[in-house]
Design goal:
mainly beta, Tachylectin-2, Chain A, Jelly Rolls, 9-stranded antiparallel beta sheet, 41 strands, about 5% helix, globular, disordered N terminus, binds 2-acetamido-2-deoxy-beta-D-glucopyranose
Amino acid sequence: MIISQLICLLGFVIRLSNAANATFTNPILPGFNPDPSCIFVKEWDNTFFCTTSSFLTFPSIPLYASKDLVHWKHASYAISRGDQLPELYRNSELQTEGTWASTLRYRDGKFYLITSYVSWHDGWGPIILLLTTTDPYDDASWSGPIRFENPEKEIDPDLFWDDDGQVYMSVARGIFIHRVDISTGKILETFTVWNGTGDRNPEGPHIYNKDGYYYLSIGEGGTETNHSAVISRSTTISGPYEGYESNPVLTAKNTDAFFQTVGHTDYFQDATGNWWCVALATRSGPAWEIYPMGRETVLSPMTWDEGGWPIIDPIQGTMSGPLPPANTDLPGDGFWAHGGDEEDFRPGTQIPRQFLFWRPPKESLFKVSPAGHPNSLQVLPSRANLTADSQFEPLEDGMGFISRKQSSSVFQFTVDLEFDPKDADEEAGATVFLTQYQHIDVTVVNTRSCSTGELEQKFRFRPEALGKPGVKVPAARTITVPQAWAGKRMRFTITLDESQTYHFTVAPADKPDEELWMGSASTDIVSGGSGPFHGTLLGVFATSNGGTGKTAAYFSRWRYHPLKQEVESGVFLPIKE
Ligand SMILES: *[C@@H]1O[C@H](CO)[C@@H](O)[C@H](O)[C@H]1NC(C)=O
Ligand SMILES: *[C@@H]1O[C@H](CO)[C@@H](O)[C@H](O)[C@H]1NC(C)=O
Ligand SMILES: *[C@@H]1O[C@H](CO)[C@@H](O)[C@H](O)[C@H]1NC(C)=O
Ligand SMILES: *[C@@H]1O[C@H](CO)[C@@H](O)[C@H](O)[C@H]1NC(C)=O
């Protein structure tokens, strides 16, 4: 009796001490990480797990893990094998195709991730997919997908288990709730429940069962600056749902907040019962013009009293809340969401976990430390360059491009290249890439001299802005590779400064101080346009530009140093790596 009272009291003291607030900074998942869905899983050592959307990037649908809501480590990719979703190999001009918003849930020892693959290939035709795993740290353990019925061609699926064991899948646009058989993907019953407050694009539904109510939270207004999170509730799953009179519960619409487009929320509770909200946001300010990292994942504390509606603190760069104690003890070989790269491609290692392809890769194009070239990443040239064309076959030809996300407002990215092109138009180098139609490249290219007809190696700086007509683009430049540098390993550096201008330089790797400026370009070029849902990637590529060249490019000493995060307009915080 006395002991149990003591334990109760102790519990109370621990709760009180946990209630002390600590500060954290947004975004919690920086760079291209939209549409978050997060859970807290006590059974997995009190760990939070989040997933975000990946569109055409591959491996697809990342899972991140955290013990303290501040330090997030990559856990796995739900789609890491091309045959899980062969549709991802399609050559689609529309760069917004691919895997969209998912919902992550945990039940009885299993993680469930339901998502949609969106394509306009044969007209609008999203496919709803369910993937499951019992080990969130292992790519290979993700099974499926099971393809669900989707008669209304809906997106943004949510999964909810009712107390009686029935499972419901809510979907958008306009919110439908389907009772489903999750072992087969069959729809058993359908309810049309709520269209939001009347704004466009009611989407991103999630259902929570609390205090005798089914709460239905959705986003509306579109994922641009009118984005808002709104909520309704009902005493029965099928409705009628009553909208909250003080909707929206979270938005940056009509504000001058630096974090804009706030919406697409998910809610979860931590070990001590505190509620938290994740959402997507864009660091653009209301002008919403400069946002190279696109939509990122942000966190906010919330209160949700019994029988009441959620109250969520508006999103800011620096916030405070009852965070769990700092803890970076997480398993696996994943990368840190805020971290940088020091990749040397040592013999016997794999392609680093944070590296991404545009669609599933043709694997033979990439090799770590090939014979004769230890400590390098071999990239064989693809016929298609980064812009590609209508003949491009992602599976057969592949794209000789590999990248990582830009995850900070100020950074330095440096990579060395050994490349001795033989044929005309062979090209290799580094890039800031938003989509095939918006990228800024700095390369070595073999060109035919107009005067002599001889092939000449040149450095080339070239912005591609087809995907954003009207944007101001600096002129392309080429300069002949200086005689003294011929045959040397070259160093390419891309930096981004506080003025949001990328700078591109080249140098011999053994004399980095002799660098030559190749060009500078505004982040405007890689904000929005053909990639309105994306964030930029920093990468390297090799191509024959439609020719027959086969010369391999060897990249080495890959360094990505995230330096500062902009957390308020013009306020930059240094990053501790
Ligand atoms: C939502 O809108 C659709 C299409 O306008 C309409 O058919 C449906 O009845 C509406 N649902 C509710 C619950 O208001
Ligand atoms: C936001 O809503 C206003 C008012 O309805 C509308 O005029 C504007 O075009 C919308 N903006 C976007 C980006 O959807
Ligand atoms: C801690 O932060 C939460 C969320 O902002 C707030 O509701 C609460 O009052 C704060 N507690 C203290 C002790 O400051
Ligand atoms: C990319 O390849 C296409 C042909 O596939 C070609 O028209 C275009 O000029 C190439 N781009 C560059 C920068 O060479």
